[in-house]
Amino acid sequence: MKNTRHFILIALLIVILAMAFGYAAFATQLNINGTAEIVGDWNVKIVNIEAQNVSDGCDYGAPQYTDTTATFDAKLVNPGDSITYVITIENAGTIDAKLDNIICTDQEDGSDAISYITTEPATSLKAGEQTTFTIEVVYDSNYIGTPSVKTKTVTGIIEYVQEA
User: Which of 23, 65, 80, 124 sits at 20 to 30 Å (Cα–Cα) from 94?
Assistant: First the structure.
């Protein structure tokens, strides 16, 4: 019985060793390598500004723009005069954008005879699309006399963010 126990114990050890060597002989190590790259391009920008609907006798100079700014200088003559500026925004990137915020503020101590009327650009701007919005500069038609302050500046910020 003692010999049988030793024999079984030795047989089990041989089987375990054989299994270990067999596993090692048939085991394969797999190596997995990967690289991730972001190929999206964010490029929402101003591509044009032009004056339209210019009242007779008014001067609008040459509106200027860069990718992120648009500047104009309207010279209004008589009450009721107006100039409308059309600003074009393009999503020249590959990432869709959505309108997040519009901030438009008039100069507090500017002329109360001048007002700005704006429209909003598109709320969604897919890659490759364009949208426009307008800023109309108006000399109040009900204003009588010559205003003591003759200028008024507007500052606007349009924020587009990545569309989820």
Answer: 65
